[in-house]
Amino acid sequence: MEPNRDNNSNRNPNQRPDGPGRGRIGSALLIALALVLLFSWVMNMVEKSQYTEATWTDFEKARTTHQLAEVELRDDRIFYMTKEEAAKPASMQKACFTGLPRGDTQALASELAAEGVKVNKIIVEDNSMIMMILSYVVMIGGLFLVMNMLTKRMGSEGMMGGLGKSKAKVYMEKQTGVTFKDVAGQDEAKESLQEIIDFLHNPQKYTAIGAKLPKGALLVGSPGTGKTLLAKAVAGEANVPFFSISGSDFVEMFVGMGASRVRDLFQQAAKVAPCIIFIDEIDAVGRSRDNRYGSNSEQEQTLNQLLSEIDGFEPSKGIVCLAATNRPEILDKALLRPGRFDRRIIVDRPNLQGRLDTLKVHTRKIKLSEDVDLRKIAQATAGAVGADLANLVNEAALRAVRMGRQAVNQEDLLVSFETVIAGTEKKNTVLTDMEKRLVAYHEVGHALVAALEKHAQPVSKITIVPHTSGALGYTMQMPEEEKFLSTADELRTELKTLVGGRAAEQVVFGIQTTGAANDIQRATSLARNMVTQYGMSDKFGLMTTASVQNQYLDGQAYMDCSQETAAGVDQEVKRILDTAYDDAKRILTEHRVLLDEISEFLLVKETITGDELMAYVNAEKKSLEAPEETPAITEGTENTEE
Ligand code: ADP
Ligand code: ZN
């Protein structure tokens, strides 16, 4: 961190960047004044357009020639209408006005009346000044009151509005009703949070020893992994109120509102402490103040306020501030200093067991039929987050209702898996026979390469039923167990499997289709990662040529090497892909009979299982070992998945 930045962030906690009182009153007054001026100007203009301005001589002339019909004496002006105008219909009449010289207005009025002129109204000069000032004062006062009420309303909206009124941005739950039982998996996160719960239960235990608990913890993880849920569960377990606000709410509305919202939030929290304050998407306010990611003064002001509030509260009071983000790397360093959000709790995507537990949590209140096997669903959903799984279960329940069933069965879950993760089945997409053949061979190409290679993940399903996601078919592979590491061999096999679809098109039909676009893209990026990040190429060895910037967001890597090296990387990627493609073509050519058999079978059935695929593969193996024996293929004879 640069030294000048440091100064900047070392602010005094007692300094309020934006006071509520003076600044607001001042600006309200100014606005009121401006409005009054504008109003009187407009009135003046309106008056001017209604009356014709005349000179005193004109007036005198009209008077001496007895042309005056009516006059009106107002302040320093005299309005008059000639007899000619008065004779016209009312809408056409146009009166004149001219300045009234100082003197005895009352006397002039009686003189005119004596001359037979109708005198309408006399507003005496002395009073008029006072009246004018008075009316201005009343107007300014009124406007000021209205403005003040408005700003106050807006200021408190965030806070009080949360307690049940509309437009609630900050809201408080007395009891969240969520406990750790509702959060599946995430054992490490729970363990880290356990201490906070204990502290909220019994602060004395900690203060007696003199231990200081962290005021804040940062929950880091991809969207939908259950960060909000965990924060609520902490409040639920500790049985304390839960305040929550999203970081983006701080910065949206008016300048200066963010800071005052932060202040209100902490004030409210202090009243009901012990409690939990949860700030979702803290990156919206907590973005680093250096300009790399673009910041603005409003956001900075809010962040400053947040920092000073966090520094300001006594930890023994029992306020714990939890914040969530999926981009910890962009947060301002000042937020992460000791005494602020110095604890980082990683909320990962769930593993197999975690997914199974999540499914169990969400199916607790759902009627399941006998055939449901949640483990299979968990196996199929590698990479899905808690929110996906919750959605999946709900979709399945909805489907069961649509089908008029009393309980959710395995098919509901599988179909909704496809809805949520792969798009819905679209039976009416019409493919020509030739296209169907191509798709079938393409998919079997993937599946067969996977089935015949050593390090491949077992295939669980092949289908040529088109999906709304645009895929005309797909091959689903299921890992036998959750894996965190992949070996170079496994990745090379994955590459072969990915290009297996295109290889089948080429080997069987001698053509290339657009259907392989996604496969090729995935294969290319995998090969690129192998070269640039995993150190798995002969050419570059252990040298990394790209680095990951946003590990928790998109995980995208950016090249950081010279242009020549980058060109070399491209060549190496191409070589790896070519090798994989050649291998895939060789495998499929060697097993051409098998490829045909399975593809024909798939064309008839549209969907085949991994077991059915393996039955064919194993039958071929046996017939090669003992050619005289040709066993009949039965469906699902061998279970290779478990
Ligand atoms: P985040 O705040 O990380 O974006 P949420 O906490 O809002 O995610 O999660 C959204 C929903 O997903 C939750 O309301 C819950 O239904 C479900 N969910 C996420 N993670 C889990 C989990 N570990 N256990 C149970 N349900 C979960
Ligand atoms: Zn494909």
Give me some keywords for this one.
642 residues, alpha/beta, 6-stranded mixed beta sheet, 5-stranded mixed beta sheet, 23 helices, 16 strands, 52% helix, 11% strand, elongated, disordered N terminus, disordered C terminus, binds adenosine-5'-diphosphate, binds zinc ion
Describe the protein's architecture and organization.
With 642 residues, the protein is α/β, with parallel strands linked by helices. The chain is built from 23 helices and 16 strands. It has helices at residues 3-9, 21-50, 56-64, 83-87, 105-114, 125-160, 187-201, 203-209, 227-238, 247-251, 257-272, 283-286, 297-312, 352-363, 374-380, 386-402, 410-422, 433-452, 488-509, 517-532, 563-590, 592-605, 610-625; strands at residues 52-53, 68-74, 77-82, 96-99, 118-123, 171-173, 216-220, 242-246, 275-280, 319-325, 343-346, 459-463, 474-477, 546-548, 557-559, 607-609. A hairpin with a 2-residue loop joins strand 2 (68-74) and strand 3. It is elongated, with a radius of gyration of 39 Å. The two termini are 53 Å apart. Adenosine-5'-diphosphate (ADP) binds at residues 183-186, 221, 223-229, 324, 358, 361, 386-387, 390.
Compile the SSE list and pairings.
Blueprint: H1 3-9, H2 21-50, E1 52-53, H3 56-64, E2 68-74, E3 77-82, H4 83-87, E4 96-99, H5 105-114, E5 118-123, H6 125-160, E6 171-173, H7 187-201, H8 203-209, E7 216-220, H9 227-238, E8 242-246, H10 247-251, H11 257-272, E9 275-280, H12 283-286, H13 297-312, E10 319-325, E11 343-346, H14 352-363, H15 374-380, H16 386-402, H17 410-422, H18 433-452, E12 459-463, E13 474-477, H19 488-509, H20 517-532, E14 546-548, E15 557-559, H21 563-590, H22 592-605, E16 607-609, H23 610-625
Parallel strand pairs: 1-4, 2-5, 7-10, 7-11, 8-9, 9-10
Antiparallel strand pairs: 2-3, 3-4, 6-8, 12-13, 12-16, 14-15
Helix pairs in contact: 2-6, 6-11, 7-8, 7-9, 11-13, 14-15, 14-16, 16-17, 18-19, 18-22, 19-20, 19-21, 20-21
